[in-house]
Write a structure and sequence with these properties.
- The complex is a heterodimer of chains A (460) and B (360).
- Chain A is α/β, with parallel strands linked by helices and 460 residues long.
- Chain A has helices at residues 3-54, 60-88, 95-119, 130-164, 167-187, 239-246, 297-304, 313-318, 321-341, 356-367, 386-403, 414-420, 438-443, 445-459, and strands at residues 199-210, 213-224, 228-232, 254-260, 266-268, 282-284, 374-378, 406-410, 423-428, 431-436.
- Chain A has a six-stranded mixed sheet with strand order 6-7-8-3-9-10, sandwiched between helices. Chain A has a four-stranded antiparallel sheet with strand order 2-1-4-5, with helices on one face.
- With 360 residues, chain B is mostly helical.
- Chain B has one domain (33-301).
- Chain B has helices at 2-11, 25-30, 33-52, 59-84, 92-109, 114-138, 141-162, 182-204, 207-217, 219-224, 229-254, 268-281, 286-303, 308-312, 315-331, 335-359; strands at residues 165-167, 174-175, 178-179, 257-259.
- Chain B has a two-stranded antiparallel ribbon. A two-stranded antiparallel ribbon of chain B has the order 2-3.
- Classes of the chains: A alpha/beta (460), B mainly alpha (360).
- The interface between A and B is large, with 67 and 50 residues.
């Protein structure tokens, strides 16, 4: 079997292994969550019984505060629901309506204390002996503790059983993966090139010519494992072209692009297909957001997880059980990513019509769907306002730390670049201008000149 | 005691945080897309059975219904191509012709069972679909449409040169070893429609459908997310071609004759009608597309042609269809499916307004 076919198989089993592992964790988690909910309900019942018995020992203030907080919460919930439903019904509130809604909400809240005073007017003073109340409470606490322990032990057993249900499948996938890997080791061609230890990406003498236009002309730089790397340069310097070369949207005219995979193998990216680089964890965003506007936010993320599915065409048409399981895993992951990005509220909205800032976030969220190794951000701050940009720099760092990946970004917002990047590479007319830490780049004369030069041209 | 109960409910709600009342069983069943298909197809089959006993539906009506269903089958394939993959084709008529002619040659020429015709048709459609798919990687949009139009014309002229009139004798048709009659063929059409609706519906709700939609919206985003343009473009064309030729296959069984000189089955008209059906219905909705096919084909064959005026002036039927297309495209560019979703949104909005009034 050829190396290409073996690699395809190895990818398939890897995906499968990942699906089963995640599914096992997911179902165990679900069992535990259900048990927890059950224990909570049971505890609430016990506490309710206790309160019923001890009611005569309660003072007026406790009753008042409890009722007040519950009623307030109920009012707030109703208010929020009315606000959200307006969005979902596709009906923006007019200013008067919004004002009336707010006023009505405030009035209802203001009326609450009076209403409660009226309700509690004839509440008798506590009559019960506090010692007896304390005895009742202790008994209830003991009961709760016992119940929780019993339920937890059972839940853990159940969760383990739920996890073990996938053991066989995990083992099978693992065995197959190992067999393929062994064959692959025999077939494996020589490494594509030398990439020094600790580097994720090595670009050497990259050239990209469009006819007579030399967009990138002999550019070399190296990106270290786990760093945030910035690529800057005046307009038309060829930054996006470099990105397009790395992600194989363009086939470079000359030069090598070496990338270290998860397994530590050095890969020549120019031999990969554009839709296959994602398998190695190379994912990107676009300068002008490319979000699928006909889909909901969640579905947009699911597309990015589509390479995780091993079910083929016929399995999809028949909606086999395996497809449903895989879908569960990818969906759970998408929801986790949405949570991480703070987009959960929007998950069922069509991307069409969402604000620009949200669309940009969706694009970034999409890159997190497939265990990223190198995230390439093309002008992530373009079109964002100052608060959003400030938020973005924190987000980029959080992504790097949480997902353990390398980030490569092109950006015009110098504040952002200088703040987040570990190393910066400045280019001009497709050639390297300077490489160094943010401080070095800021001090660099040539970089300053390149930028000022462009400014002058623009002023004319 | 009143206060006691109020306090207990506030501090320790009985059911935890209040759960929203879920939809009823019937409402949940109605939302099962595959169940919808089964129910509607069962109703269609029932209509035939009623008509068989001479009740309610006349048999010309059923005949018209059958041929409309055949066009619906072709349309749902086209829906996948246009609505989901964003590819345009005007070659549908040619693909229908392929199915019809291969059915004729297998049954009349070889005397082989119909199932072989299906296999031959599938093989031919895959070859044609793959080749058109490959071309679609090079040219896009209106140029692709023109290219497929040219292809369809080549196929039509080729078929015409081979044999201008084909006719099948129903007595020579055998399905799984048994002979069939008109009624059985109608039921077969309904069954095929149901199966293809379910399969297509499943497909568009799976990663395959999502990848196609991503490809339609942005080829670069789709590629960056691991969607192979080649794979899904080929797939889209293969599926459309297969559906169209299955349509041709069923047509040969149901109508049983094609005269290329007089019939418009293999001309551009059919391709445009299918395109019209998908656009009127809403290119992303399978049911919408089916309704679109009923408007384009069913309306004239089942209702308009019964009216005295249209019987005398058949040309006006086409004009009615044309007018409908203009109206829909002008006011509802998303087709009937959009009309339905707009209606739903309108109802929701009204309910919301009532709630808001009550609150304020």
């Amino acid at each position: 079997m050829s190396e290409k076919r073996l690699l395809k198989r190895s990818n398939r089993y890897e995906s499968l292994l990942r699906t089963w592992t995640e599914l096992a964790a997911l179902s165990a988690e679900r069992v535990l969550r259900q048990a927890e909910a059950k224990a909570d309900a049971e505890e609430r019942r016990i506490r309710r019984d206790l309160a019923e018995r001890n009611f005569a020992a309660l003072d007026r203030d406790t009753v008042y505060q409890t009722l007040l907080s519950e009623r307030t919460e109920r009012e707030n919930r109703q208010y929020l629901d009315l606000r959200l439903e307006a969005l979902k019904a596709g009906r923006a509130l007019t200013e008067e309506e919004a004002a009336a809604l707010d006023a009505s909400h405030a009035r209802r809240l203001a009326e609450l204390p009076e209403e409660l005073d009226r309700l509690l007017a004839d509440l008798p003073a506590p009559t019960m002996d506090p010692a007896e109340a304390k005895r009742n409470a202790d008994a209830a606490e003991a009961e709760i503790r016992q119940m929780r322990e019993a339920l937890r032990a059972k839940a853990e057993r159940d969760a383990e059983a739920a996890r073990q249900k996938y053991d066989k499948r995990i083992a099978a996938a693992q065995a197959k993966l190992e067999a393929v890997e062994q064959k692959l080791a025999a077939e494996r061609s020589a490494p594509a090139g030398e990439l020094a230890e600790g580097l994720t990406l090595g670009v050497t003498d990259l050239k990209m010519y469009f006819g007579g236009v030399k967009a990138v002309d002999g550019l070399s730089f190296e990106v270290r494992e786990g760093e945030i790397f910035g690529l800057i340069g005046p307009n038309g310097a060829g930054k996006t072209t470099v990105f397009n070369c790395i992600t194989q949207f363009y086939k470079p005219t000359a030069g090598t692009l070496l990338f270290r995979t998860r397994e530590g193998k050095v890969l020549d990216l120019t031999r990969e297909k554009v839709h296959d680089v994602i398998l190695h964890g190379i994912v990107r965003t676009f300068q002008n957001v490319e979000v699928v506007r006909e889909m909901t936010v969640l579905e947009n993320l699911l597309v990015a997880g589509s390479r995780q599915f091993t079910t083929g065409l016929f399995g999809s048409a028949l909606h086999l059980r395996k497809l449903k399981l895989e879908e569960q895993v990818v969906r759970a992951r998408a929801e986790k990513v949405l949570d991480f990005m703070g987009l959960s509220l929007y998950k069922d909205y069509l991307a069409f019509g969402l604000p620009y800032g949200i669309l940009k976030k969706i694009e970034i969220a999409r890159t997190l769907m497939c265990s990223p190794r190198l995230i390439i951000l093309d002008e992530p701050a373009a079109g964002l306002n100052d608060t959003e940009t400030a938020e973005l720099s924190g987000l980029i760092r959080r992504i790097r730390d949480e997902y353990n990946c390398t980030i490569l970004l092109v950006e015009h917002d110098m504040g952002l670049v200088m703040e987040v990047c570990d190393h910066i590479c400045a280019i001009s007319f497709g050639q390297l201008l300077a490489y160094g830490t943010p401080a070095e780049i800021q001090a660099n004369k040539e970089v300053q000149q390149a930028y000022l030069g462009v400014d002058e041209e623009e002023a004319e | 005691m009143d206060i006691k109960q109020a306090y207990l409910d506030a501090a320790f709600p009985r059911e935890g945080p209040k759960k929203r009342r879920g939809p009823s069983l019937a409402a949940r069943a109605a939302r099962q897309p595959n169940l919808q298909v089964v129910v509607i197809c069962a109703i269609l089959a029932l209509m035939q059975i009623l008509a068989m006993n001479g009740m309610v539906f006349s048999s010309p009506f059923i005949t018209a219904l059958g041929s409309t269903l055949i066009y619906s089958i072709v349309s749902i394939g086209f829906c996948l191509l246009l609505g989901y993959s964003g590819l345009a084709s005007l070659g549908t008529a040619g693909f229908i012709g392929l199915g019809a002619y291969s059915a004729y040659y297998v049954v009349e020429g070889l005397g082989a069972p119909y199932i072989l015709a299906l296999l031959v048709t599938l093989a031919v459609s895959i070859v044609i679909g793959v080749s058109v798919g490959f071309i679609s990687l090079r040219i896009e949009g209106i140029y692709l449409a023109i290219m497929t139009l040219g292809l369809a014309e080549i196929i039509r002229n080729l078929l015409m040169a081979i044999k201008p009139t084909i006719k099948i004798d129903l007595n020579s048709v055998r399905l799984f070893g048994v002979g069939v009659n008109d009624k059985a063929v109608f039921l077969l059409i309904v069954l095929t429609f149901a199966v293809l609706m379910v399969l297509t519906g499943n497909l568009i709700r799976s990663p395959v459908g999502r990848s196609m939609l991503a490809m339609k919206n942005s080829t670069s985003a789709a590629q960056a997310m691991g969607v192979s343009l080649m794979k899904y473009r080929l797939l889209a064309f293969v599926i459309t071609t297969i559906y169209a030729s299955i349509g041709g296959l069923l047509y040969m069984m149901y109508i049983r004759n094609v005269t290329t000189a007089t019939s418009t089955l293999l001309t551009l008209t059919t391709s445009l009608n299918i395109l019209g059906a998908v656009i009127i219905g809403g290119s992303k909705s399978l049911w919408g597309t089916t309704v679109g096919a009923f408007i384009i084909y069913g309306l004239q064959s089942m209702f308009l042609s019964k009216l005295e005026f249209f019987k005398n002036n058949p040309a006006f039927i086409t004009m009615v269809t044309g007018l409908l297309i203009i109206l829909v495209v002008m006011f509802y560019p998303g087709g009937i499916a959009q009309m339905v979703s707009n209606l739903r949104l309108w109802l929701r909005r009204r309910r919301y307004e009532r709630r808001l009034r009550d609150y304020v």
